[in-house]
């Protein structure tokens, strides 16, 4: 399954409190992703909480768009990527 | 970049619904019932963005075994006829496609849609955005809705109720659906709790979102997907902010998509814009556009209209022009003309408007979408400098379609326009044809003098040339105008000329039409001869498949019979007319027939039936109610001594629009009767005398009779001489028994009693019985006091109102048993029919006998018949 980086902008900041509420919210996104056959691997969030770069596995960009639509998450860009590991050549 | 065909992903993907469980459950239940053969119509209402489409997408996926037909109506300036059927045919294997692609008789197409629905798996038929539906689609929905019982189909019609004005055509269509098989569901906005939950689901703070959106799901979704910091104050700001963030090429794609209501084909985008997959992806990522197989569309129509409205005019014009170029180069398919016309008007491209709008108009007219046809003709006529020969045709088309829509002023203006153009082109025949039409249009709006002049001019023009079908038609229009004025002898003379000419020319349809006109007028002079002619015309019309004409002729048989008091015949014909127009969904003919049915029932003394029939039409037809229904209702209420409210003023207003003797005379008669009941004799004379002066010159001895009798009763002796129908004449001349017998033979109980009330004490006692039996309280009260005052006989006080039809205080059950007994049923048969034991029936019979004071079944039957119980 191809891997994608999904770039998102949250101008009013991303809200994921380290509480039960934050856990429920994230679980909800994961669950809705599953309906489109999409896996949220993890995300990198900018220090000001306004940008996120999310690593996703999914069948197609369309599936990722669907999942985002279900969770009302914004998308700026979807880029298909391959893993490049710096220690790969060290064998 | 290539996308996988997304139908599968889309179907597998569940929309997230919040607070729609109850509604969804109800819809699924209806769908399950429909699958067992209990067909049903659901009207799904809600404001824009409330989530109608999402709900329906979920419903579609709830029952995978059900066949899914889904079609939508688009926000084209003038929608193209039957757009939802094209959607359905595009994505399903349907048998009606053949009829759809080869436009012909609309009825055949509707029938074949129904046949498709009756075969194969149960169907969920969704028609979205019906507030934009064209007239043909509305007719289709009514057609299907009325026949849905027993069909394995759930028909869901979604619409924005906040866009329906009081006179929106959709409202009338809904009124025509059978209430027993129709339900309405309204989608409410989301609660604050639901909005907060949605916000948290999107990893956002819920502050202020409910307040800004008022719980509109589309607005909530847009807001949550919007990355900007502040909370914009409208959907418009949101959508435009999102649009503004797009790159230049992506904006071009979105702008192009915005000016095409519904979806835009990928081929059109490719033809007009450089291939830029990244820009397209940007549009999709932004959430503004969705990709469909071979097409793009806005995620929501609300967003499309916002972007469309924001486009600068020159830019929009250029885009419309581009789309016009691409579409016109593509193969011509049904419905394309309407799209081309839409873009041509908006591109300001006059030659294209001239080319496509009339084509779209003809297509719409053929499918009975009169509103759309008129709009297209109007657009074509608005182009300056079009060739006059074509403008003539457009005027004619616009006039015809406007007449269908009841817009008489537009119709008259357009016929005049056509006449003027024909005159300039020295095309006499066509000018005359249009003059005849103009005459009829004038008549419909009550301008008799102009109508006459136009019809006469047509005849004069045509008589100068070789006689052809146009002349026969002009003669017939003359005949018809005379008939509406009840100048029946002139009508017959003109009609006969039309008939003879048409026969000589072997113009078959014209012969049938002329027979119908002559027959309708002859009924007033010689009933049996007129009736025979109409019967012959009806046979011919039916044999030739002239449905509309057959409906009109059946109606004329009914109303004509009623006007000359052949009431039993009238009921038979009107029943046929009602069944005929119901089968063919000719609503106006149905109302006309029912209105006259109410009149016939009223004269036959079936006042409850008359009231019920009349009220049905008044409620269904609103302002378009035929005046006989109002008059029948008013008469029943007057004779019962009930308040008539504004009924008679409404009826007068309606009649004054037509302003013909046939319309005005009866209204005046009823108003005079109301005055008589009030004891207001000057008003009786003021209403009836001018009317009689008008009617006396014409050939309607029944109307003359009624008006003369009212004047006679009011003591006015200086009455214009007129030929009067027999029962009225006998009554005026004082032949009580003769008049009573004549009324009896016609089945008119109230009129018979009125005649008897003028006789001796014995006659008056019979009259009193009839009045009380009918519930004619004012007449009964007057007669009772007269009998008492005369002192000749002691007349017992009788029970009032509620027992008026039941002088023996029989219970409902006893009456029911008596009625069956009168039909010759044995007690055991009655018991079976009513699902009661024989003992119970024996008991009811015994009780009824005791109250009637009889001891045998024969006596009971006689008593029941005498008192009007059975």
Structure description:
The complex is a heterodimer of chains A (91) and B (870). Chain A is an alpha+beta fold and 91 residues long. Chain A has helices at 20-35, 61-71, and strands spanning 3-9, 39-45, 51-57, 77-81. A four-stranded antiparallel β-sheet of chain A has the order 2-3-1-4, covered by helices on one side. In chain A, β2 and β3 form a beta hairpin. In chain A, α1 crosses α2. Chain A is globular, with a radius of gyration of 14 Å. The mean pLDDT of chain A is 87. Chain B is mainly α and 870 residues long. A five-stranded parallel β-sheet of chain B has the order 2-3-4-1-5. In chain B, strands 6-8-7 form a three-stranded antiparallel β-sheet. Chain B contains 46 helices and eight strands. Chains A and B meet through α1 and α2 of A and α1, α9, α11 and α15 of B.
Number of distinct beta strands of chain B: 8
Number of helices of chain B: 46
Radius of gyration of chain A: 14 Å
For the termini of chain B, the CA-CA separation is 82 Å
Task: Offer a concise description of the structure.
Chain A is of the alpha+beta class and about 90 residues long.
Keywords:
heterodimer, A: alpha+beta, B: mainly alpha, 8 strands
């Amino acid at each position: 399954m191809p891997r994608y980086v999904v770039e998102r902008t949250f101008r009013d900041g991303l809200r994921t409190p380290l509480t039960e509420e934050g856990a429920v919210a994230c679980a909800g996104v994961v669950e809705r992703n599953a309906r489109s056959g999409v896996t949220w691997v993890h995300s990198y969030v900018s220090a000001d909480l306004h940008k996120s770069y999310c690593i996703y596995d999914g069948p197609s960009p369309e599936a990722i768009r669907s999942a985002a639509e279900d969770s009302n998450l914004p998308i700026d860009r979807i880029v298909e990527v391959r893993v490049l590991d710096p220690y790969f050549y060290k064998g | 970049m290539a996308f996988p065909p997304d139908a599968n992903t889309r179907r597998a993907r569940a929309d997230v619904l919040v607070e729609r469980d109850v509604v969804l459950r109800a819809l699924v239940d209806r769908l399950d019932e429909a699958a067992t053969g209990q067909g049903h119509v659901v009207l799904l209402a809600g404001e824009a963005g409330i989530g109608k489409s999402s709900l329906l997408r979920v419903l579609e996926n709830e029952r995978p075994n059900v066949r899914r037909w889904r079609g939508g109506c688009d926000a084209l300036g003038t929608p193209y006829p039957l757009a939802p059927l094209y959607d359905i045919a595009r994505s399903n294997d349907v048998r009606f496609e053949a009829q759809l692609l080869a436009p012909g008789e609309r009825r055949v197409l509707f029938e074949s849609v129904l046949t498709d629905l009756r075969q194969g798996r149960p169907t969920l038929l969704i028609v979205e955005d019906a507030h934009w539906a064209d007239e043909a689609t509305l007719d289709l929905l009514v057609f299907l809705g009325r026949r849905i019982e027993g069909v394995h189909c759930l028909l869901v019609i979604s619409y924005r109720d906040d866009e329906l004005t009081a006179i929106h055509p959709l409202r009338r269509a809904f009124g025509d659906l059978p209430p027993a098989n129709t339900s309405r569901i309204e989608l409410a906005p989301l609660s604050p709790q639901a909005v907060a939950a949605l916000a948290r689901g999107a990893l956002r703070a819920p502050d202020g979102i409910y307040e800004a959106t008022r719980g509109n799901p589309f607005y909530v979704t847009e807001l949550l997907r919007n990355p900007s910091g502040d909370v914009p104050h409208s959907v418009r700001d949101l959508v435009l902010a999102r649009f503004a963030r797009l790159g230049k090429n992506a904006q071009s794609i979105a702008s192009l998509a915005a000016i095409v209501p519904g979806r835009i084909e990928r081929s059109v985008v490719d033809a007009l814009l450089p291939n830029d997959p990244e820009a397209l992806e940007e549009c999709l990522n932004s959430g503004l556009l969705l990709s469909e197989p071979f097409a793009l569309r806005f995620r929501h129509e609300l967003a499309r209209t916002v972007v469309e409205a924001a486009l600068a005019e020159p830019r929009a014009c250029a885009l419309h022009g581009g789309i016009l170029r691409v579409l016109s180069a593509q193969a011509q398919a049904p419905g394309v003309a309407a799209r081309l016309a839409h873009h041509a008007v908006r591109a300001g491209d006059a030659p294209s408007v001239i080319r496509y709008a009339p084509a779209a108009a003809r297509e719409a007219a053929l499918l009975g979408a009169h509103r759309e046809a008129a709009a297209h003709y109007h657009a074509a006529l608005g182009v300056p400098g079009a060739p006059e020969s074509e403008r003539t045709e457009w005027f004619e088309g616009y006039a015809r379609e406007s007449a269908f829509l009841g817009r008489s002023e537009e119709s008259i203006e357009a016929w005049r326009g056509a006449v003027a153009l024909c005159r300039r082109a020295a095309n006499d025949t066509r000018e005359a044809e249009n003059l005849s039409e103009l005459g009829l249009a004038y008549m419909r709006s009550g301008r008799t003098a102009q109508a006459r002049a136009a019809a006469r001019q047509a005849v004069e023009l045509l008589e100068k040339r070789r006689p052809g079908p146009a002349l026969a038609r002009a003669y017939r229009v003359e005949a018809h105008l005379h008939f509406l004025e009840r100048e029946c002898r002139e009508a017959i003379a003109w009609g006969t000329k039309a008939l003879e000419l048409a026969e000589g020319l072997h113009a078959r349809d014209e012969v049938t039409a002329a027979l119908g006109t002559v027959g309708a007028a002859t009924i007033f002079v010689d009933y049996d001869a007129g009736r025979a002619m109409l019967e012959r015309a009806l046979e011919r019309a039916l044999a030739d498949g002239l449905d509309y004409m057959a409906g009109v002729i059946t109606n004329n048989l009914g109303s004509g019979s009623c006007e000359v008091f052949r009431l039993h015949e009238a009921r038979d014909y009107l029943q046929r007319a009602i069944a005929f127009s119901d089968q063919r969904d000719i609503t106006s003919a149905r109302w006309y027939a029912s209105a006259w049915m109410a009149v016939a029932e009223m004269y036959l003394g079936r006042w409850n039936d008359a009231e019920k029939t009349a009220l049905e039409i008044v409620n269904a037809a609103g302002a378009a109610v035929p005046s006989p229904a109002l008059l029948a209702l008013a008469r029943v209420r007057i004779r019962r001594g009930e308040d008539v409210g504004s009924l008679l003023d409404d009826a007068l207003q309606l009649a004054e629009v037509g302003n013909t003797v046939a319309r005005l005379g009866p209204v005046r008669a009823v108003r005079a009767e109301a005055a008589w009941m009030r004891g207001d004799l000057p008003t009786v004379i003021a209403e009836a005398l001018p009317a009689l002066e008008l009617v006396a010159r014409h050939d309607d001895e029944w109307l003359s009779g009624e008006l003369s009798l009212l004047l006679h009763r009011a003591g006015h002796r200086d009455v214009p001489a007129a030929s009067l129908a027999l029962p009225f004449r006998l009554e005026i001349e004082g032949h009580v028994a003769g008049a009573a017998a004549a009324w009896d033979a016609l089945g008119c109980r109230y009129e018979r009693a009125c005649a008897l009330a003028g006789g001796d004490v014995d006659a008056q006692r019979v009259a009193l019985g009839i009045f009380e039996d009918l519930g004619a309280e004012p007449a009964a009260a007057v007669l009772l006091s007269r009998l008492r005052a005369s002192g000749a006989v002691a007349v017992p006080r009788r029970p009032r109102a509620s027992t008026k039809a039941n002088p023996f205080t029989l219970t409902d059950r006893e009456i029911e048993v008596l009625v069956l007994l009168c039909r010759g049923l044995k007690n055991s048969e009655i018991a079976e029919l009513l699902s009661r034991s024989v003992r119970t029936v024996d008991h009811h019979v015994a009780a009824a006998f005791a109250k009637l004071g009889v001891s045998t079944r024969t006596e009971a039957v006689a008593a029941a018949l005498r008192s009007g119980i059975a």
